[in-house]
Amino acid sequence: MTPITPFLSVQDLHVSFQTEDGIVKAVDGLSFDVEKGTTLGIVGESGSGKSVTNLAILGLHDPERTDIGGQVRLEGQELLGADRTTMERLRGNRIAMIFQDPLTALSPFHTVGRQIGEVYRKHKGASKREARERAIEMLERVGIPNAKVRVDEYPHMFSGGMRQRVMIAMALVCDPDLLIADEPTTALDVTVQAQILDLLKDLQQQTGTAIILITHDLGVVAQTAHNVLVMYAGRAVERGTMREVLGSPRHPYTWGLLSSVPRLGTSVDVPLRPVRGTPPSLINPPPGCPFHPRCDYPELAGPELCRTQRPEISPDAGHGDACYLTLRQKTDLRTVAHAAQTTQTTQTAQTAQTTHIKDRA
Amino acid sequence: MLRFLTRRTVAAAVTLVIIAAVTFFLFFAMPSDPARLACGKVCPPETLAQARHNLGLDQPIFVQFLEWLAGVFVGRDYEGLGHCSAPCLGYSFVNRAPVFNTIIDRLPVTISLTIGSSVIYLIFGVGTGVIAALNQGKALDKIASVASLIGSSMQIYFVGTLAMYFLVFQWQLIERPRYVPFTENPLEWAYGLLLPWLVLAMISTANYTRMTRSTMVEQLSEDYVRTARAKGMSGRTVITRFALRGTLSPIATIFGVDLAVLIGGAIITETTFSLQGVGRLSIQSVVNSDLPMLMATVLLAAAAIVVFNIIVDALYAVIDPRVRLS
Ligand SMILES: Nc1ncnc2c1ncn2[C@@H]1O[C@H](COP(=O)(O)OP(=O)(O)O)[C@@H](O)[C@H]1O
Ligand code: SF4
Ligand SMILES: [Mg+2]
Q1: Which spans are transmembrane here (chain B) (predicted)?
Q2: Are A102 and A82 a contacting pair, CB within 8 Å?
């Protein structure tokens, strides 16, 4: 049963930038919904438009250089083109964001207590003292020991993982309905990654906030997401529940992404180079299926079609993908791809192991 | 902080003594004879010898230097000339007075020039820099960059002379610059120095505009500035509390240098506007071969740089908590 008004609904989102080289179509007709209390994992290679999408939701693009079209609705309220004060009231309050690198994303000039507290003061009209107490409470909640002392310290005095906890505390200080986490663990080492993901999951269970988790790591998705959106060149190429997309992936690009993960459910960070070739130009995207220059199967699906007509993802909810192969072909090919993956996996795992040992030495 | 200040003050003192020694020995090598100056135009050889002896010039050079150095701390008696109380930087035979007194006399002019003009260029420079950065690529930005290009290609003696000629003599819009002590009449003080302030500021503003603009543009694309926006801070807060904060360190750096250089003597400005500050004093002492005076002005300039260096370094730590004083 889908509710009539989704909590967050993104419809036919287009984002393009005017650059010296031409117009970069970073997001090109993207639609998805997020429900309260659920996590949507957005995956895709770097440059596929994940960050641009989420900055658009928050209205953080420079309006002078960016063209944005489509709809972004939060409980039915249109956010694209909303006026400045509306957006300022929303940001940090109902929708909060955490970024990849907590060192650069926190101000080096202010104490963490101040940075957390000022959000609370701005949106909840709290006094300085209340804000400080709230900051301490939040730091405790995200598991920072000795919060009463650390509240007066500066970000550079924290370790990477602790800094990301500070970011999370800051994002959650006003109990937002939606948390956008843009690669929140990419800059962290493996054990810390797992801790941060667990923390996000726990906090979601306590508060029921919706989460959009952006990552290029399918392991992270497997651990945390309820639903998955696979992005390629600014478009959705596959969408479904986590089990559907990771368990029976349908799009050749998703197969490629999956083959980069050593074992499903682990978060060993293997550099993502799953698919041969490079992402397409966003200024002059190839006609037809944007993935066709890198795809192994146009011959099967119909080369003319793949090269000239853009496959659309089915508009109705449920497991969907944008590829001309028949469902039957997809099931068969996936099995083959999986077999290939298994051999590759063993190698990757071994390589990872060796690197790990080398790192230690 | 205390440890930092102690350490740096000691280092500064050592630096200044070394600079004093170097200038002392350099000047000693110059073909000029203080004794002859002291002795006057008609100078019989016996009197000259006597003067030499009185000034200690018949001693080996390093003894002379040590005597000079001791004079700085405890004062010194010049036979036949009188007492020069500590800090005695030497005795000028041109002015027939201790060097230190003359410097103290002239310093307020130079300090007034420095304070007034630096307030003006700091406000205008940083202000236009911020405005330019916020309007990147737009008309205001282009106007600011053209203006600062013109400003920075100007020379004080050129602008100053033009200003004197037109504003003061031709159109008589403003009176000839003069120095009235602040304590005597603050308004007259400001009015008398307004023209030199503006001219001096006009030249320097451009540096601050360009510097502020470029760091501000960098700051605006910093992640933490984006975070500030992402958490709902208003546009003005984002700029003043976050972006501007990051431009303070580089501004403090050039500001410190500029202040130090100006205190050391705004030679050209003072000459152009005939103000009797330290800058003119140093020029006059060169012309008059007044070595003790010249040496004192050199030392003053050096001291200004050393002191402002310490201040700027301490400021860094105040501005940016990541900087640790050591
Ligand atoms: N402000 C911008 N101006 C021009 N191009 C941009 C801008 N921001 C992002 N892009 C381009 O848009 C594409 C998508 O970027 P992004 O959403 O950051 O990718 P990712 O999926 O790695 O988060 C990239 O090709 C990037 O170069
Ligand atoms: S539509 Fe064609 S080119 Fe695109 S992914 Fe499917 S088979 Fe490959
Ligand atoms: Mg990104």
Answers
A1: 111-134, 146-169, 189-209, 251-273, 293-319
A2: no
Residue nearest to atom 3 of ligand 2 (CA): A292
What type of residue sits at position A242? M
Taking alpha carbons only, the member of A165, A187, A262, A250 closest to residue A218 is A262
Residue-wise pLDDT for B31-49, tens only, equals: 666 677 667 767 778 877 7
User: How crowded is residue A297: how many other Cβ atoms within 10 Å of its Cβ?
Assistant: 19
For residue B126, what pLDDT is reported? Answer: 95
Which two tokens mark B126?
Answer: 């940083």
Ligand 1 contact via A17 beta carbon (within 6 Å): yes
What residues of A are in contact with residue B321 (Cβ under 8 Å)? 108-109, 154, 156
User: How many Cα atoms within 13 Å fall on the side-chain side of residue A85?
Assistant: 0
Per-residue pLDDT for A361 more than 80?
A: no
In a domain, A351, yes or no: no
Domain that holds residue A153: 104-173
Asked if B322 lies within 8 A of A108 by C-beta distance, the reply is yes
State the total domains in chain A: 1
**CA–CA distance, A218 with A222 (Å, rounded to integer):** 6
A343 vs B195, residue with greater confidence: B195
What local confidence, expressed as pLDDT, does residue A348 receive?
Answer: 45
Beta bridge partners of B92: B97
Residue A339: the pLDDT is 59
Residue B264's pLDDT is what? 83
DSSP structural state of residue A91: B
- Please tell me what DSSP assigns to residue A281: P
In chain B the domains, ranked by start, together with CATH numbers, are 2-84 (no CATH), 105-319 (1.10.3720.10)
**Rg from Cα positions in chain A:** 21
**Best mutation site among B136, B221, B231 for testing chain A: the one with the most A CBs within 10 Å?**
B231
Q: Looking at the domain assignment, is residue A142 inside a domain?
A: yes
Q: What is the mean pLDDT of residues A351-356?
A: 42
Q: Which of A325, A330, A291 is nearest to A307 (CA)?
A: A291
| Closest alpha carbon to A58 in A79, A38, A42 | A79
Given this model, what pLDDT does residue B30 score? Answer: 67
Helices (H), chain A: 50-58, 84-90, 102-105, 112-124, 128-141, 147-150, 160-172, 190-207, 218-224, 242, 252-258, 298-301, 303-308, 327-360
**Residue B19 CB-half CA count within 13 A:** 18
pLDDT for the residue numbered A349: 43
The predicted pLDDT at position A337 comes to 63
